[in-house]
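During the no-cost extension, the postdoctoral fellow (Dr. R.K.) reprocessed legacy sequence entries with the updated structure-token encoder. One reprocessed record is reproduced below for audit purposes.
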Amino acid sequence: MAQAVALEGRYSQSIPEFGAERRGAIVRSYLRVSDKPIRVHSVVRKADGVAVFSSRILDYIDVAQYCRENAVVIVNCRGEKCVPGVRTYVVDATRIATELGLVVAGWPVVNTAMAGAMARVLRICSLETLLTAMEYYFSGRTLELNQEAARRAWEEVREVVK
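Re-encoded structure tokens follow.
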């Protein structure tokens, strides 16, 4: 996502935050986007948007606490999961990844599908720029599959009407 923002001539900053280094552990990642140079280099306390890659986390964490007023949350889920008090969007990134064979060690890899949904909902970048940015990280058939995951999620993400 940060690469796509840079390709569009804006400034971006990506900050990963890892907990226990085990599969399935909670991971947070922050993305700042601006038209001006970014001088702050810290975690984001209150976000304009939050992406939840596994809806199971909603049973344990109040995602709304990380949101600014008028923020949106994008949840990877099959149904109508909703974050109380926050405008919520859903996309079945797991299904998309599984259908495309984006699975490693039995785990669907949902990151590029979620990137497609996030880019659209949060208006971070255009779909075309996101697909171009993926060329920096993937090649061949892997590139094609990840681009297709982003494209499908871009098209399928939808708002949950309360």
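The two ends are 29 Å apart (CA to CA). The chain has a mean pLDDT of 93. The remaining legacy entries will be reprocessed before the final report is submitted.
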